[in-house]
Design a protein that fits this description.
Layout: E1 2-13, E2 16-28, E3 33-37, H1 44-51, E4 59-64, E5 67-68, H2 74-84, E6 85-89, H3 100-111, H4 116-126, H5 142-154, E7 160-164, H6 172-187, E8 191-195, H7 199-202, E9 207-212, E10 215-221
Parallel strand pairs: 3-8, 3-9, 6-7, 7-8
Antiparallel strand pairs: 1-2, 1-4, 4-5, 9-10
């Protein structure tokens, strides 16, 4: 699914160079559920951005489902993102004045896909919110808002879901519900990679990759 070979990412700020990743190599197999952990500044977000085709490495190769994506154009990367990857964020990123249904429809609108309403409705049914289609985010609890965000990530039928601190704004009970739901999605064959600071959240995954100073210091399968 994901093949990273000697990935280095350097950010330049004037004459200063910040090395975010240093010759990082790893593979994530189809159907795995993997957590990425590490302190602030360890390179977690940079790694997720590269896996998610939101950023390109300075050097090294990245293959997603056999496609070498580090050499693709911005338009080609956008196509990969819209077809193969679903994103879930800590802050939900829902449009506040728009219904759950319309929020989930958005990726389909950008992709020019027909039957958007039906597919968005089905995605919300999948996350248990078929009865909340016409509610706006302010009318939903935090866990429900995150489920809308997950439905939005699912609506394009991605093979990979990337989740960045997906339980960071949720209480412990709701966090457990969301992680159990991620496990259910993973059991359906969707590869899931999530960033977390919390060991109890990482415990729901099959494998934990630990970063420090842009390098992998541990890769633990459970």
């Amino acid at each position: 699914m994901v093949e990273l070979d000697s990935i280095t990412k350097i950010y330049k700020m004037g004459q200063i160079e910040i090395v975010a990743l240093k010759e990082l190599s790893c593979q994530i197999e189809p159907g795995e559920m993997v957590s990425i952990m590490g302190p602030s500044g360890s390179g977690k977000s940079t790694l997720m951005n590269i896996i998610g085709c939101l950023d390109k490495p300075t050097s090294g190769q990245y293959r997603l489902e056999g496609i070498q994506v580090d050499k693709l154009s911005d338009n080609e990367l956008a196509e990969i993102r819209s077809r193969k990857i679903g994103f879930v964020f800590q802050t939900f990123n829902l449009l506040p004045r728009t219904t759950a249904l319309a929020n989930v429809e958005l990726p389909l609108l950008y992709s020019g896909i027909s039957k958007r309403r039906q597919r968005a409705s089905e995605a919300l049914e999948t996350v248990g919110l078929g009865h909340r289609l016409n509610h706006k985010p302010s009318e939903l609890a935090g866990g429900e808002q995150q489920r809308v965000a997950i439905a939005r990530a699912l609506v394009n039928n991605p093979s990979l879901i990337l989740a960045d601190e997906p339980t960071g704004n949720l209480d412990s009970r709701t966090s457990k519900e969301i992680m159990l739901f991620f496990q259910q999605l993973n059991q359906r064959g969707i590869t899931i990679v999530l960033v977390t600071h919390e060991a109890d959240i990482a415990a729901y995954t099959q494998r934990t990759i630990r970063l420090l100073d842009g390098q992998i210091i541990a890769d633990e399968k459970k």
